[in-house]
């Protein structure tokens, strides 16, 4: 008897519906076709054991299974449950009445219990889009999938529950999640606060400007000057995620298997800090079984690169295009996948190999050539893509010992949100642009043109610092953000002066 069961395959951060066709007839052979990988083929043994332990018998007939569409590679063990249900239905041991209304997904253990899967959220979104009434999946993924409304999500712990449900011997209770309530309840769950940072007012100001305009930042300073400390506090002053951004971010983490047990939505902006030994593939994504990389896991959040010159040069260079395009296309012989990667890039580094170049109290033991070679590990084109380059000096003892706390993250965040609202109104007629950092040349000409006095100041800075054309655009973007923080409609000369001061690490003026 021919039976159809429905599952899903992940492609990038989206899911495609897979139709599993099972036909039982006279014979003893087992055929599984439709481009399955080794993990899918191994499901045969897992299914036999799971059924036997739970009191069911694997049919002693010829079984032919086709997984359509046959041109999509079926990978992973999440097809175990739908394959088992399809085999039993084709053998007449499971009723077919409700099969066409449900999408089924899950990995089987040998005792019939279900193991969590990757990509539950995009699978649930696809199931609703294709008109399925219900989604049956492991209990551990139920809250993640239940974020999708107008779809009954049934979390199950054992294959026996699924068989009894389709045979009308058991009722399953759908998992219900109040998406908006959960989302807004955890929007301010940040463990770090700028109130804990003593001194460094100029760096706090630079990070406020960066957050207000979505600008990339590099901090350079001696060991122990507070670079990592302030980077970790940056998410707390960014505008809160919107529900649409949260869903998109959660989809990426779901596909990568990074969501914790019983998690639903990611409500705070992600902060990713990969180690400097990371490979190119781990950074941008891909692999034999395609996975999102660190730049995509940082989507709508922050990618922090500590000790930037210690990263492999090739690894850093692959960041250049994603920083501009805010998406990454992974093209291989067998697949082409696009992942979103709209993130703020925050980097930190020592000023020289010994770490004490320009230190106020400790002498640097590096000669000029060493300092220059150390900086050369970070290419000029990558530095050009970083809008704000700020030097950090260690905090003196008088500041460290102060009992008075600094300005809180919540106070800074209010100013950032106010500036972002101005930008949101400004770019309302420009799809895909939501902050000043995303402006291209046409928009810079429209919204970030300085007056005559500012233009003269900028011309002098360009000539003295020997800045590139890209750096010119970066200065205007940052100046536009500074003006937005002040609520100024036009860019004034003091806005430009502050923006120029954030280019103090440009190659020609550093290490000489």
CATH fold topology of the largest domain: Rossmann fold
- In the CATH hierarchy, the architecture of the largest domain is 3-Layer(aba) Sandwich
Percent range for helical residues? 25-40%
The main β sheet shows up as: 5 strands, parallel
Lateral arrangement of strands in the main beta sheet:
11-14-17-10-18
Question: Could you tell me how far the N terminus lies from the C terminus, measured between alpha carbons in angstroms?
Answer: 81 Å
CATH class of the largest domain: Alpha Beta
Share in β-strands: 15-25%
Radius of gyration: 28 Å
CATH superfamily of the largest domain: P-loop containing nucleotide triphosphate hydrolases
What keywords describe this structure?
2 domains, Ribosomal Protein S5, domain 2, 18 strands, alpha/beta, single chain, 512 residues, Rossmann fold, elongated
């Amino acid at each position: 008897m021919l039976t159809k069961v429905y599952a899903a395959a992940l492609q990038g951060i989206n899911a495609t519906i897979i139709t599993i066709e099972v036909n039982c007839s006279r014979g003893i052979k087992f055929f599984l076709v439709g481009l399955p990988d080794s993990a899918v083929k191994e499901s045969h043994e897992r299914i036999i054991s799971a059924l036997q332990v739970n009191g069911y018998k694997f049919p002693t007939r010829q079984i032919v299974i086709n997984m359509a569409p046959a041109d999509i590679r079926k990978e992973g063990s999440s097809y175990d449950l739908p394959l088992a249900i399809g085999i039993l239905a084709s053998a007449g041991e499971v009723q077919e009445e409700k099969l066409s209304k449900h999408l089924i997904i899950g990995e089987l253990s040998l005792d019939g219990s279900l193991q969590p899967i990757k990509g539950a959220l995009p699978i649930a979104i696809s199931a609703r889009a294709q008109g399925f009434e219900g989604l049956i999946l492991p209990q551990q993924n139920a809250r993640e999938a239940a974020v999708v409304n107008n779809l009954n999500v049934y979390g199950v712990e054992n294959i026996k529950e699924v068989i009894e449900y389709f045979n009308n011997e058991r009722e399953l209770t759908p998992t219900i999640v109040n998406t908006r309530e959960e989302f807004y309840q955890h929007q301010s769950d940040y463990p770090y606060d700028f109130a804990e940072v003593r001194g460094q007012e100029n760096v706090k100001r630079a990070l406020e400007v960066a957050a207000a305009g979505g600008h990339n930042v590099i901090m350079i300073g001696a060991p122990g000057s507070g670079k990592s400390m302030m980077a970790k506090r940056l998410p707390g002053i960014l505008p809160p995620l919107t529900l649409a951004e949260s869903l998109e971010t959660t989809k990426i983490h779901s596909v990568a298997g990074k969501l914790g047990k019983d998690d639903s939505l990611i409500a705070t902006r992600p902060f990713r800090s990969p180690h400097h030994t990371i490979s190119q593939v781990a950074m941008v994504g891909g692999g034999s079984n395609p996975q999102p990389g660190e730049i995509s896991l940082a989507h709508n959040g922050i990618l922090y690169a500590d000790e930037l010159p210690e990263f492999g040069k090739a690894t850093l260079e692959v960041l250049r295009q994603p920083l501009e395009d805010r998406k990454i296309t992974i093209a291989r012989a067998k697949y082409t996948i696009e992942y979103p990667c709209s993130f703020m890039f925050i980097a930190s580094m020592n000023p020289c190999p010994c770490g004490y170049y320009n230190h106020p109290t400790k002498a640097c033991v590096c000669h000029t050539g060493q300092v220059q070679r150390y900086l050369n590990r970070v290419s000029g084109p990558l530095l050009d893509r970083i809008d704000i380059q700020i030097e950090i000096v260690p905090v003196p003892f008088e500041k460290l010992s102060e009992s008075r706390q600094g300005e809180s993250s919540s106070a800074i965040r209010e100013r950032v949100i106010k500036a972002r609202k101005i930008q949101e109104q400004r770019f309302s007629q420009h799809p895909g642009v939501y902050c000043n950092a995303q402006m291209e040349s046409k928009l810079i000409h429209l919204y970030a043109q300085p007056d005559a006095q500012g233009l003269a100041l900028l011309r002098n800075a360009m000539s003295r610092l020997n800045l590139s054309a890209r750096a010119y655009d970066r200065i205007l973007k940052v100046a536009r953000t500074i003006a937005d923080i002040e609520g100024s409609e036009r860019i004034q000369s003091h806005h430009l002066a502050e923006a120029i001061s954030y280019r103090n690490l440009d190659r020609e003026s550093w290490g000489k």
